[in-house]
Batch of 4 targets.
Target 1
Amino acid sequence: MSQMLLEVEGLDKRFGGLHAVKQLSLQVAKGEIVGILGPNGAGKTTLFNLLTQFIAPDAGRIVFKGHSLRGLKPHRVVALGVARTFQLCRPFPGLSVLENVLVGSLGPRVHHPDLVERAMHLLEQVGLSSKADTAAELLSYGDQRRLEIARALATEPELLLLDEPFAGLGSAEIEAISALIRQLHAEKQLTILLIEHKLREFMQLVSRVIVLDFGEQIADGTPQQVVENPRVIEAYIGKQGAMP
Amino acid sequence: MEILIHGAVSSAIYAMLAVGFTLIFGVARVLNLAHGSFYALGAYGTYVATAILGWPLLPAALMAIALVALFGVVIEKIFIRPLRHSQLGVLMITLAISLVIEQALFLIFGSEYRNVPAFIQSKVTIGGIDIAGQRLLTVAVAVVAIGALYLFIQRTRLGSAILAISQDAEAAKYMGIPSDRIFSLVMAISAALAALAGVMAGPFLSVQPAMHLLPIMKAFAIVIVGGLGSIPGSIVAALMLGYAETIVAYTISSSWTEIVSVLATLLMLVFRPAGIFGKRAAF
Amino acid sequence: MRGLHQLDRSAAIVGTAALGVLAMVPVLFPGNYLIGVLTVAAIYGIWAVSWDFMCGLTGRENFGHALFIGVGAYAAGFMNVQLGWGPWWSLPIAMVLSTAFALLLGFPTLRLRGPYFALAMLSAAVIMQRLMLIFWEYTGGEEGIQDITPLIRNHLHYYWFVLLLLGVITFVLSWLARSRWGLILRAIRGDEATCLAAGIPITRYKIISLVISAALAGLGGALYAHYQLQVSPQLFSIITSITIITMVYVGGMGSIYGPVGGALLLTLLTEGLRDVGEWRLMVYSVLLILIIFFLPNGFIAPLWQRLRATLRGRP
């Protein structure tokens, strides 16, 4: 049990009358790429917000590498090694691409004599080095996604939470980002938690899928197992009339 | 008893100021720091019309109010609208405008207190207390004016348009509501109310170039306490402030009264920025 | 030019040269009047720079900067006149007191959004102004505190002292602004939630920046007190804050060196308008309006950038 990188038990959160996350439990082992799937409103982004302490849980345990994350300020969570990206890209306006990555490099986990060099290296890895001095808000959507990833990587995380990294991208871009994630996972031994709507997009990427519906976990298995799971099918057909 | 009446008078003036201020914020998200200048110009306008042009009081007052309303519309169009995207920008511009107006008034009229005639010259006795008739009239006028505004917003089509815009400006635009024209209208109403307050209060409050400062600070305090954009909130908060100040003046000393409003602002902003009635409370 | 911790060498040279020129001016054109004007200009420069560091970089405009100025000035006056302490104690005490106020006010107000932070600080300044009047037995009321002893009796030497402080402060703040500190402040201006997600303890940075801004403003206040030899509640007024903000706008928000130029320019302008003294405030307000509309990036900083680009032969 204590080999798990991330252990969540009994996580619970209400927003007024809405029970967004219900007694959620999950474990993630080091080095896994786990997908979090679920229809709209299932509580996926809320889960990320709870994990990173952007919102305080009402109940439950969150243990990362043996540290309890509850009650910590968000930046302390990052300092422990958890980084996240946002569903809607949020580049720092008024700062260049390079500066955006630099901002992520200022935490206590980074031990590098030349931060600029390190940032440029990260930009190269995501394919943005030629745009280092461009104003971040001028980037195309796909490039902003890459920037989000680069900036999250800059914090030297062990666990990376990606919130719908493929949203709003065309299929070519999705392939590219998907390949990027795979590459980064291999090179940096990252553990990745990935939220997506459509299973098709990350079938090849993830080794395991956890499905949420109405704040509860309804399935946990390989992509193949999950797709054939009757509860999952019902959750999707019941909501969207489309197969996951 | 004195406190009761004087508190009512203060509250009435503050209510007229605050309602206008909160109205333009609720509709256009504009924090208009020149609002106090409308108050000042209402008083000065009446002074000019009566003392210099020799008009009788009622037409003088009406003309002053109308001119200030027009002035408000002009200011909104030229100075505020281009900066709508930046609340801080609007803050700075309206502040600068209020200072320009103050200086202009100072340069034209000097710093001596000016005399604005009262509608009712005599004193009235209520419950054994002598009160200037003008002060009582102010309360009555405030009630009528705000009541009329309330009816206007609730009962007319134009009023519904105003409500719509204050809830969602974008959606209102898509429904064909001419938001720019509504902004002008609301600004006119807001300025007119402030000018009316100036006209009514001029006779018994000081009329000098810096007279815009305290009203705007108090209007702001009231609006923050009552909840930005909420007319009922402003009225309640105006009553609270009017009475709080009167009580402080009678029990402690009048030099502390000015602090009441500013302190209320600071504390409210710090502890409950949404105000008592919360943000975006319906009209 | 990429990198953190880089102070533009050419800017540093020009800055030092400018300081040298400013120091020499009263030697070439002797006269206490000129020295007086330049001293005041330098003090305004300190105030403007302190405002710009916090507000220009984070975009959180402080409409109550005068509070820190007044606190520093009154601390100087009070220590010196009421308590009889030597004038050199004023400087550190003013800074400590201003820091205390910054901490007291900063924690509750820095989480407010732009206009509300501005107005909360303004409210605080107005309250302080009122309190000075209410507790007139200690503060001298309307007239304030008089007969403060000067720090350095020789006007020229005092001017050089103030100028030196201005130079050091500008240099240090410029360096900070171009280092990771400035980067973080600008990121905070951009998007606070994302800063948190990037691991930055934003509250800490906001508070410390406000403290630096306040301490330097208080220092300027003490310097002013020992120049004017009196302090009055006017120091807390919105006029003071607006004047400084105008100087920063003219100089170029966020540039740090621009506001120094803005302070100089506007102080000289004001002196030039001395004959039409009543028009001064009017001119400032109109100027502010014009700048906001036509030159929101200021006048001095963009000019310098343009100059530098031309000198380097860049298109």
Target 2
Amino acid sequence: MKARESRKLAFAKLRAQPFLLAGVFILALFMLSAIILPFFLRDPLSTDVLIAFHPPSFSYLFGTDKFGRDIFSRCVSAARMDIAVGLSIAFSAMFFGVIIGLTAGVVGGRVDETIMRFTDLVLAFPGFVLALVLVAVIGDSVFKVGIAVTIGFIPYFVRLIRAEVLLQRELDYVDAAKLVGNGPVRLALFHILPNAIGSSVVQATLVAGWSINTVAGLAFLGVGIRPPTAEWGVMVAEGANDIATGFWWTSLAPGFLIVVASMAFHLIGDQLSEETI
Amino acid sequence: MWGFLVRRLTTAFLVIVGVAVVVFFVIRVLPGDGAALRAGPYASAERVAQIRKDYGLDKSLFSQFCVYIKDLSHGRLGTSMRTGKNVTGELFERLPASLELAFYSVLLASIIGLPLGALAAIKRGKVADQMVRFFAVIGSSMALFWLGILLIYLFFYILGWSPGPVGRMSVGQTLPPSTTGFITIDALIHGQFAVLGEAIKYLALPVVTLSFVLSAPIIKITRIAVLNTLNMEHIRTAKSIGVSSIDLIWRDVFRNAAIPIVTTIGIVFGYMLGGNVIVEFLFAWPGVGRYAYTAIQNSDIDAIQGFVLLVGIIYVLMNVVIDFVYMFIDPRVRLGSDQDSK
């Protein structure tokens, strides 16, 4: 009885928040189609020059590109990669950021000072430039792009968590937990962290959206993920030249999907941060 | 006030030194062989060794670092492998183009973002607020390069209203004498109005592309800052004694909300000066972003290194400028700093 009521309440709340609802819906749609659709579609890498530049039609929903590859299958396959990469970057940036920020806030002193100065240094570079140069130096692969983009986002979480920890540390429950004999690690992980992590989770949804844009932007510049991989940014780059010759559809769908996927995360993040104002 | 200035510049200098060390670390110490990259996949071992020797990459890391710091203290950022010219000169040659693009983009983004953000805050929870928030969400999720391509397709290929994506000016157009490096302002100073019109035509698409994306953070931060200010006691009091709301917004709210807004606009501007690789690439804009793109395509180590350093330094200096702007808009910062410098 009680469970049903609270479920009802949750639904009512969700309905009152169109942004959150829309974001979750789009994301679910993306994930479902990325999992199920590939079984029914053409191979995203198979080429057939005879059907090159086929405009969008019933059999080729988004048309075909200059190699005769089906753009719809490529977009679906890319959805898998882009969303997975975006989520992994957000998770790992939050994971490392939380550990580092928690250490800085709880240990304090020299350690804190060193960590924060280092954070400032990373923040002295715009994230996109940092990722661009890191990938240019360490080389191209999906994994390396992931690392490069993650590094730029870690400081956001370090700062957020540290600020929260400094606030929480002054509260009575922390003293109480200390008094009953919790060691510093236990105190940090099981008492302070659960109370300090909220804003970081909100931040992580926004970071997932930004990561999708960053990774696609790097791929567009030919850095990181390379052709013929089915990735939205790569596809927009490949199609960019076809526009001049009138084949407008080659970049249209992949670019649109970048925006929609990123938007799903931003809608969720925007609503969540609205709750905290 | 002067004490604050000196202290702020000292910390900025220290951060720049740190930035220089980080850049060295990233470019030279991380796995990846610059000389092999430069020589290309089919080069012989001797060729790679020769390149390594030419650029001093065969020496010990420590002596490389000493050379790097020595060059840096003389303002030398190394020699481009691609053009053989001094990287510092090449970067500064291209900086005005980036600066002009950044300036107009941030200006337009602020013209869009400030009123929309304030409107959303005043109408919080209403339809207007929802629409502004949705606009900001689209702006934050927009893929710059895709938007640019769409605009080029629409306004150049289909409608023919805009010139093609070929940079600041058509080839063969004589430029006004360079006084400020901004083509628009130079043209204005020297009375060449036809050139001014041309320059604006070429600026329009990249500026619209950028400002659409840049307006999102400005809207968000303005909205939050104004919301917070509207909750302050003295504003509520002013409202309750009947100060008209337009007056209130202009005189009191914006003044109180100015610090976060100025910070954001400053950071966005600093970001634009160096981080604008995508749009400069797309519109063939002859700025530092496009230079970085070419450098990366050619694995031109010194040029990449110079670019990152420049971006880092601009970013740090931008933060100093923001702090100074605080002193003018907020007497608390000015007075507070005077007190602790005594």
Target 3
Amino acid sequence: MTTPSSPPPRGETPPFWRDPAKRALLFQALMLAALFMVVGFIVSNTLENLDARGITTGFGFLNDTAGFGIVQSLIDYTPQSSYGRTFLVGLLNTLLVSALGVFAATVIGFLMGIARLSPNWLIARIAGAYVEIFRNIPLLLQIFFWYFAVLRSLPSPRDSMSLGEAVFLNIRGLVVPAPVGGPGFVWTLVALAVAVIAAIVLVRWNRRRQEATGDRLPAGWISAGMIVALPALVFVASGMPLTWDLPKLGGFNFSGGITVLPELLALWLALSIYTGAFIAEIVRSGIQAVSHGQTEAARALSLSGGMTLRLVVIPQAMRVIIPPLTSQYLNLIKNSSLATAIGYPDLVSVFAGTTLNQTGQAIEVIMMTMAVYLTLSLLVSMFMNWFNARMALVER
Amino acid sequence: MSKLTLNTTPVDARPAPKRGVGPIAWLRSNLFQGPINSVLSLLAIWALIAGLTPLIQWAIINADWLGTSREACNSGGACWVFISARFEQFIYGFYPSELRWRVNLTFVLFALLIGWLALPRLPAKKLAAVVTLVVFPVVAFYLLHGGSFGMPAVPTHRWGGLMLTLVLAVVGIVAALPIGVVLALGRQSKMPIVKSISVVFIEFWRGVPLITVLFMASVMLPLFVPTEVDMDKLVRALIGITLFQSAYMAEVVRGGLQAIPRGQEEAAAALGMGYWKRMGLIVLPQALKMMIPGIVNTFIALFKDTSLVLIIGLFDLLAIVQAALADADWLGFSIEGYVFVAFVFWIFCFGMSRYSQYLERKLHTGH
């Protein structure tokens, strides 16, 4: 033990290194100075190195002609387009596979998470085996497996596997019929939108009515019926203006229909199966976190099994599930960058890969790529925080 | 008043209760509780038989195990000869075969240290932790790289396979731990500048994918240092992985710090301890114990993520198998190769996750 230091005599201010506030100021000033020195060192080195290699800095390269093709693009793109355009194409492809992946992973994850708690021993074991197998194998390996071992060993277009002469699966990808809306098909879509809006209004009105009077309509069934029936009626009334563009084998490849690239399929499968395993664990632990007394109390109030689940268990489980679910969604978006390993044209592949190699603008390209992922992360966590705040129980 | 009548005929005997034990009762209560469950169970049994039978036939019954070349693979099943013929390369990469004892020695030392740390009965855990985190990396570097003590140097571009995977993961975790502790303390600091620097650093690395970090490490890092410094490819990857991992580690440490009641720190402050003494003697030792499951979980994630280094041209376990699949002598055995890699990764990750679950149960001393 050190002897306690004697307090300074009254009227005398202590030396500044004994004053925590001043010490903190000094420490922070030193830290800032060190940070500036490190940054300055890096910047000066970088400028020197760029100068030695003859690379000009700046974002002017974004207007130059790219000169390379991209196999999948959601917007118009030709090799004559600019590098700025490749950035957009890559970004949209990343968003596409992320959205598909988030959807499929959520479905798989919730199904498997609930199956893991099934009273059926076999179903619970199968779900458990799925989780333990797929979350302990690297995602990149799973992508390689689906791409090189499964999809790349499919037959050629001539001997494709087919489903009812409409859907074909071959080494070039999955070919499905494309819907072609005729004139007037737009009204069916309008009817769908109207039905969805009406359903939302109905559910809200029903909730308010229930809180006021205690009566409730089966709003779920009514809205479901409305969403199916209204567009169907309009569709029939306007003369069924929808045709299918069926894929046809001509020469060595299919024409017509929509071709889903094998790269996209492999990435989608791997991302959803891998992330689904993590989501299943989150769902399982979320449901288990709701204490058994809650279910018993609900049954004692004579709520039915479905109502117990919908009104008591799920709202409480969601509070536990949403925060880790958010980070799984973020992981999935970030993991979609593994596309570059199999050549799916995502942001990292076409921009941080091809564009960087062609222009040599390493700093600008990497910074833009990182900024995109940071922004996406921020947006998704903001949305999920908002959703979480809505789902959180209001404690009185 | 009504007359009391007495029923004198005996009631029929009740049937015996359903058996609560035995295989039939087990089946009834676990697989065939009702019509829906019975259908589900039958479907699952059918799917398992339909799926597993060809798998077992391919992987075990019809597989070829012995031989040295692809001619040995003619029975139509899996060709494990491919794995056994290339096994040494998958483990050691291009490490010179006469020097592989050094890798083996490192593996053995590592396994012994991990055993010392993980088995609860062995004493002196603190010493074991110090040896693993400080002494072992130095010894391992001299053993693997060589170049002194009369051992010929093996340049890092000859490292590969499982050995490189382990090097990347272990160095990533060991180097990220101290940075993570500092960052977590900084994030909890009351000094605004220290806090914001830590928060920005942590959130930046957590918000970007590891691939972009590796790209950055391989193309931007050489620009950041003076021209005369020539950085090894492996070192660059390690720097990227360490920066990336330290942010995740900081969040694990923060979780551990938050699990310690504030009273602990206040009591230490009441005893007149300064900040570093409070942290070093009171808070961190308790928090570190709580953090071990979290650290193991980050290690599992990092261990799987090390496979991404194949994108910047390092030959870890997955990359070296991927390269072997392109060998003209062994074309068409990609499934065997992937199954082997998956099996190796799975054993490591599953083992570690079981250990971390066990620790969580053991550390859960609450209600």
Target 4
Amino acid sequence: MASISFAGATRVYDRAHAPAVDRLDLDVADGEFLVLVGPSGCGKSTSLRMLAGLEEVDEGAIRIGDRDVTDLPPKDRDIAMVFQNYALYPHMTVAENMGFALRLAKVSKAEITRRVTEAATVLDLAAHLDRRPKALSGGQRQRVAMGRAIVRSPQVFLMDEPLSNLDAKLRVQTRTQIAALQRRLGTTTVYVTHDQVEAMTMGDRVAVLRDGVLQQCAPPGELYDRPANAFVAGFIGSPAMNLVTGDAVDGGVRVGTTVLPVPRAQLDRAAGGTGRATVGFRPESLVVGAAGDGLPVAVTLVEQLGSDAYVHGTCGDDAVVLRTASREAPAVGDTVWVAPRADALHVFDPTTGTRVA
Amino acid sequence: MTATLAPPSAPVTPAPRKARRRTKTGKAGPVTYSLLALFALVSVFPLYWTVVAGSHTNAEIAATPPPFLPNATLFENIDAALEQAPLGLAILNSVIVSGAITVGTVLFCTLAGFAFAKLRFRGNGLLLSLVVGTMMVPTQLAVIPLFMMIAELQWVDQLQAVVLPTLVSAFGVFFMRQYLVSALPDELLEAGRVDGASTHRIFFSIVLPVARPAMAVLAMLTFLTAWNEFFWPIIALTAANPTVQVAIANLGSGYVPQRAVIMAGTLLGTLPVLVVFGVLGKQIVGGIMAGAVKG
């Protein structure tokens, strides 16, 4: 068990282009489950591979516990990794796959058998120990990859999109299993995913990356309620937060004919010299009001989800999504008048995207 | 063509195409079998003719129509062949030479192929082009300097003179590289590194098992080439300590070449190759099957 710290860690593939990971500063506490999330190409996998020792660190340092591991090879870092495509050794049985690292570490045969059997029981693989990976289903292979990590009792687990090759139902199931397993073992874990639902449900904290730069690292609730900038606001949450930009006027931000109320102090900081501000509000914080009251939204699409419905529409040039109860959903072509709850407004600087309130 | 012109309700078009393809690949018809049988006959006939010709005299072979069945004279001719040349020694020599060359080539080519395919080092691409480039240099060009070196080492008429120059081949390196580039996922090597394996350990525990099908193919090709090699062995070795091909060249040589004796000797020299094919052929088919199931 150990803490992890990235201190200004940078990875440059090609001098001509921006770094894949740019001065990453990130601390992971002992026993914490940290999720790295972001769109593809944001540097999340590269960060993980730098921590694993599979990718060089061009600048800065990485520490695991008290040790500076920046220049250590993977085998000396006391980590275990689960790969996206599992990377099981095709010619070895499940038991051999799980015991390979222990065999290399010269652990006694009896001890290997004991630990492999124990892990196999936890992962419900005991009946398949003599099989080759080829003879296993996708979910079983995924569990073998997990087992290979567990048997070593490493200081840190690294997981690189371990669920992306599973079908939707199995993914949800395995998601909860991995989270539960991690809490039980208490091993510090760094988990990479592009799926924000995985990020929100599994992580103690979630770090959002974009173009190699860390945007925000916070517990899921905080990330949702107080996104640090417009990018995080738009990335976390499904459907995404509505973001509209309008002129700063007395008492708030004018969008179309409506003025969304924003306190003066925030407005001054957001508008700066441009006189404009970006306002964000989540689909569920919109309240449908009487005609003529609030923002007019011309409905273009209604997604029925059973209990709820997402209503997609346009308000002037901006796309707006709102959530309503399924039975109260308007029809396509209608215009509904909505207003965000005043306490659920997020205000961002329209130029930098930074949150001002 | 029809697919691009078809209306957007596309799912209709792939269905019949799929069905047609299934019948095509699923069952071979009489035409396929006839063609295969013809091909097999043409391939096997030279071997059969060796047996037939080996069991007749020069005159009988030259008669019209020629004989079509072998008989017991074959064994007399084999005895004659064994008397005229040290065929037993030659076969033993060829087994040693071809075996050593095969083991060396497969091992070294897999090592080099792995390095070129998966290890990151400066000059990787340039070195590979140089290796591949050597394939364009004809063997004949190297014969005189090579012989001078062998003579200097006093290895003339010794087996290492034949083995050493061919212990690794540019073709083999390239072949193994191409196979490993596609068959060996990077993640597998990374998993090995995270599991604590050194590069050597990764090679022997992870790369070799994955490379096995290609290694079997390379082994068979190399063994055949080494077994049939004639030009260099006849320069480096003498009739007293020959390989099979060198020994056969000395067979039945008189005023009139004794074809039957030559054929009998050739038959003896071919048998070990058939055995090797029997052993490795299964491996190759196994390799193809494994790939098919995986893909």
